[in-house]
Amino acid sequence: MKSFWRPALCAVLLASCSSGVREHAASIQAKPTITEGSLVNSLRASEGDIQLFELWPKERERLDSRKTYRFDLLRVSQASPLPSGDGAASHWNTELVRVSDDGRVLYDASFCPVHRQQMTRQTVPISYGLPFHPEGYLKARHARFPHANTSLEGGCSVGPQKEVRAFVCERCREEERAWKKANPQR
Fold first, then answer.
1. Can you tell me the distance from the alpha carbon of 68 to that of 45, in angstroms, rounded to the nearest whole number?
2. Span 138-153, mean pLDDT?
3. CB 133 within 8 Å of CB 90
4. Which of 26, 163, 176, 184 places its Cα 20 to 30 Å from the Cα of 65?
5. How far apart are CA 91 and CA 78, in angstroms?
6. Cα 133 from Cα 37, distance rounded (Å)
7. Quick one: which of 90, 84, 149, 89 has its CA closest to 123?
8. Is the separation of the CB atoms in 68 and 30 below 8 Å?
């Protein structure tokens, strides 16, 4: 079976992170369960001890619940602020990277759809608090640089986590810098 990871991405995943985040690749073969929602659907799939729950926007390719698909995942461990009996606990999140059907890729979170290029996995800071964005920024981000990920919004309540791993598109970052230069904050 052909590996789905490109060598550069694999090297990034295997590197240890200063933020205490550990990642490893996993794949499952499973039939999905799709729950229809009014705005977005949810996708569930599991094999063994790996459980996947993912929001699945209605505009993405429809998956047949009778078929078995390959789900390529990242298992991400982050130290938890809640101690277990023997020190700091950690919990695992499962992030969906790719869905394929007999080798045909149906969805790929590691590929920038705007710039049509493979992204890299990087550690980015979390920004807590109410975000302020200049007029037009959110619309431009969605259309021109959705994977700049110079920081990720963590919500209004400050948590213990300061960094997170995310896919980053360098061309998105270039586009974001150009947009900010052309639209300085007042």
1. 10
2. 93
3. no
4. 26
5. 6
6. 29
7. 149
8. yes
Concatenated DSSP letters of 3-48: ----HHHHHHHHS--TTS-EEEEEEEEE--EEE--SSEEEEEEEET
pLDDT of residue 186: 61
User: What pTM does this model have?
Assistant: 0.75
Measured N-to-C along each axis, helices 170-182 and 137-144 cross at an angle, to the nearest 10 degrees, of 150
Mean pLDDT computed over every residue of the chain: 82
Residues 6 or more apart whose Cβ sits within 8 Å of residue 58:
39, 40, 41
Q: Which two tokens stand for residue 59?
A: 């505009």
Rounded to an integer, the average pLDDT of 113-121 is 95
pLDDT at residue 167 greater than cutoff 60: yes
Question: Exposure of 184 by Cβ count < 10 A (0-12 exposed, 13-18 middle, 19+ buried)?
Answer: exposed
15 pLDDT higher than 60: no
C-alpha to C-alpha distance for 118 and 39, rounded to whole angstroms: 28
Position 2 pLDDT exceeds 60: no
Q: How far apart are CA 81 and CA 72, in angstroms?
A: 28
